[in-house]
Amino acid sequence: MSLKHTLLLSVSLILSACGADKPADKAAAPAAPQTTETKPTETKVEPKTITDKYMAGITKLTNEGDNGEAYFSPDGQQLIFQSSAGGYDCDKIWTMNIDGSDKAMVSPDHGAHTCSFFFSGGDKILYASTSHLEGACPPKADFPPGVRYAWPYYPYDIFTADLDGSNPVKITDNPKYDAEPIMSADGTSIVFGSIREGDFDIYTMNPDGSNVTRLTTSVGYDGGPWFSPDGSKIVWRAWHPQTEAEKADWQDMIDKDYVKSVPLDLWVMNSDGTDKKRLTENGATNWAPSWHPDGQRVIFSSNKDDWREDYKSYGHNFEIYMIDIESKDIERITFNDGFDSFPMFSPDGKKLVFGANRNPEKPRATDVYIADWTE
Length: 375
Description:
Layout: H1 7-15, E1 34-36, E2 43-44, E3 55-60, E4 67-72, E5 78-83, E6 92-97, E7 103-105, E8 113-118, E9 124-129, E10 150-152, E11 157-162, E12 169-170, E13 177-183, E14 190-196, E15 199-205, E16 213-214, E17 221-227, E18 233-239, H2 244-256, E19 258-260, E20 265-270, E21 277-278, E22 286-291, E23 297-302, E24 307-311, E25 315-316, E26 319-324, E27 330-332, E28 340-345, E29 351-356, E30 367-373
C-alpha cells in the first residue's frame, strides 16, 4: 500500500495485472470463497549470501503469481494478503495460515484489490477494491510521456466482509481513491489514505465508514498510515513538494490520478493528527512502515543504503530497517540482493512476515516470507 524513486515500480509490480485474461462480469456478485492447498506449502529458504539480522528459519509461503502486503490476524495464526494467483489480471485478497496452508480467496473475483487487514476482533476483514465498478480490472494506466516509474490511483473504495469473504459492505464512497486501511487494536477506528479535498491525505473513520476525519493537511503525498499497538500514534510516509515546480508537478499527478517516483520520508503523529514529527530525512524512499510491538520502534523498507543505477529490476534495492521514534537511530535488518519490504511483526513479536524477491527461479516475482524474530 504504496511510494518513491523506484519503490514505485516494485509496488506497481505487486499491484499490476498479470496472468490470463478473464472476462468482465458487470452484474456478478462476489464469488464464493475459493480454497486451495489445504496442506502447508512452506518452502525453506537456504540463502547463500543473505545474512539477515534477528531473522531465523525464513520460510517462503507462496509459490504462484505475485504476492505482497501480508498482515497478521490478531491472534497471530493467519495472514491476509494480495495475490495474482489463479491467473487473474489484477490482484485479489487471500488468507492463509502462517505455515502457508489453507489458502482461500476472500475477495470478489472481479476488480482490483489491495491493502487488506483483519478486524481487531478477528471476526471480519477489510480491504480496498474496485469490484463495485464495471470491468474485470481497471483500465491500463496511460502515464504522461517521460514518466518511467509510476503507479495509478485506481478508484478504490474500502470494503468490509466476513472472514470467508461473504457479506461484503462498501463503507466509503469516493470517485477518486480510498485505500490503505488499518484498524486500531481496540477496534474503534480505521486509518486510511485518500484522495479527496484536492490532495492525498490521511483520514480516520469509524468501522462502519462514519465520522471521516482528516489528519494531514500539507500539500503533497501522505499515505501508508499505521496505528501503533496502543492506538495512540500513527506512522506514515510522506512527500511534501517545496518548490513551485514540484507543486505544479504534484498537482498534475493528482489531476491525472497517478504518482511517479518521489522521495518519501517517515513521519509520526498522535492519532488525532497532533504533534507531527519527521523521522527520516535521507533523500531516499522510506516506506511500508509498521510498528514493533513495543510501540517505540517502527520497521520499514528503504533504498537508502543500496542505490544501483544498473539494477535491472528496480533501479535501487530495497531492504528492511527499524527506527526508534525518539532517538531516530536506524538499524538495518535485511541484507539481500533484491527487494525486501512490507514487514509486519506478529502481535507477540515472535515472528516477522515480509514480501521479497528471493526466489532465484522467479527473480522478479514477489513472494510472502515468514521468519522467527530472534532479537
